[in-house]
User: What shape does this take?
Amino acid sequence: MGYPQSALADEEELLLHHHPHWKMLILPSITFVLVTGVAGVALGVASARLQSTAANIAMIAAAVVWAAIVGWRCLVPLISWKCTHFIVTDRRVLIRQGVLTHSGIDIPMSRISNVQFRHGLLDRMLGTGTLIIASASDDPLEFDDIPHVQRVHSLLYQQVFDSMEYRRESVHGREAAFEPMVDDVPAESKPGWRVGKRR
Assistant: This one.
């Protein structure tokens, strides 16, 4: 069983699973292209103008610098993006993130009191935005770069509404279970019943 199915409880239904929006990878992609281009030019210049030994040292140095920058500015953001999960089930909202050290937040649907979203012009063009979830007693939580944030907002709103309706029906059901039936009411307390001594 793959992730996120392995993180769900029994009979919990997965409704949505997203990584952050791909716009998080734009800067690492640009960095990769630029660094690779500069490294290629440096290798060409070193091999053309330097002696064989010096050229080899310069090429090794350029390759080490290229690998360090790509690993730090490109590979790490990519792995972080891949290891960040926004999950919605029929019972809760889950956020999981981290590579070596994992962290997570679980928000039960029953505790969500308000759901909002925010996105500017660029976010609307890219189909992303910030989702704001307010729970019963805690400060609102903001989650940036949620893909299709309006659809996610609508889905969460519907799930919260269904959860409230379910709780309301459960409360009414329990109240009805404790209401006495008409036949269970003592005869003396029925309307129009007159109590008196028999002659």
Notes: The chain has two domains: 13-20+86-177, 27-81. Confidence is low (pLDDT under 50) at residues 189-199. The CA atoms of residues 113 and 135 lie 5 Å apart. DSSP finds four helices and seven strands in the chain.
